[in-house]
Amino acid sequence: MANAPEYAAPALDKGLDILELLAATTGALSQSEIAEATQRSTGQIFRMLSTLERRGYIFRDKQSGLYVLAMKLFELAHQHPPLRGLVSIAQPIMQELAEQTRQSCNLAVLDGTQVRVIAQVESPADFGFRVRVGAAFDVATTATGSVLSADSAEPLVRADTLQPGITDVVAAVRSAAGTVAALTVPYVATTFSQIDAERVLQLAANAAKEISVVLRGEAFTGS
Q1: What counts of helices (H) and strands (E) characterise the chain?
Q2: pTM to 2 decimal places
Q3: What are 149-189's pLDDT values in tens digits?
Q4: How far apart, in whole angstroms, are the C-alpha atoms of residue 223 and residue 220?
Q5: Does domain 76-215 have CATH number 3.40.50.10890?
Q6: What is the spatial distance between Cα 169 and Cα 21, in angstroms, rounded to a whole number?
Q7: CATH 1.10.10.10 in the chain, residue ranges
Q8: Residue 77's closest CA among 151, 134, 144, 148?
Q9: Cα 12 from Cα 117, distance rounded (Å)
Q10: Comparing C-alpha atoms, which of 124, 101, 218, 84 is closest to residue 171?
Q11: Which of 28, 76, 164, 190 could bond 66 through an S-S bridge, CB–CB 3.0 to 4.6 Å?
């Protein structure tokens, strides 16, 4: 069978190049910087930038004129049924975990070579460590990334390599096909900490197991 013909779509390529550039860039870029990085003239990308801004995919600071990626792509991803269903299942279980541990917790998935936070529950205590929904971290430098890439059911406790004083307690959420997400408690040992990290690990592992069995449509019997 002959290969399907390839059809060029220059405008689409142009828009995708801009989105991918901004997604991979820390900070904001000017129109000329975007043009140079995508190997196009400023005139070639002007209308595309205006359209992407109007549609909510990028944001332009009115004072500096610099562009950054907006949250539209992240919002679209959350409308995708598998991801939306995972968050809906996990949210009440994560809320209970936060109450039990008096710590915040978050849920993350693999996004290429990054760990992407898709849900977060605040600590009910007066002090806690919060990770923003949508935040992305390098897989290779995080405990969450280690659990996601290992595709193992074994939970993990490890000092956070980016934030001194934080101990990452991570448990895998697994479907029938393997690990689909990681439940992380960024444990903070303060006067507000009512239980130690090992007990938090037990509770996090149990919560991840509960999310997993509900995700698979099974009955959860506890640990």
Answers
A1: 7, 8
A2: 0.66
A3: 887 788 999 998 888 889 999 999 998 878 999 999 999 98
A4: 9
A5: no
A6: 33
A7: 10-70
A8: 134
A9: 28
A10: 101
A11: 28
- Give CA separation, 209 vs 85, 87, 143, 149, 214, in Å: 16, 15, 18, 18, 9
Amino acid type, 39? Q
CB-CB neighbours of 11 under 10 Å: 11
Largest CA distance in the chain: 68
Nearest 10 degrees: CA dihedral of 186, 187, 191, 194?
120
Please give the single-letter amino acid code of residue 131: V
Pick the CATH number of 10-70 from 3.40.640.10, 3.10.620.30, 2.120.10.10, 1.10.10.10: 1.10.10.10
CATH 3.30.450.40 region(s) of the chain? 76-215
**SS3 call for 70:** coil
Alpha helices in the chain (DSSP H): 10-23, 31-37, 42-54, 72-78, 81-101, 143-150, 197-215
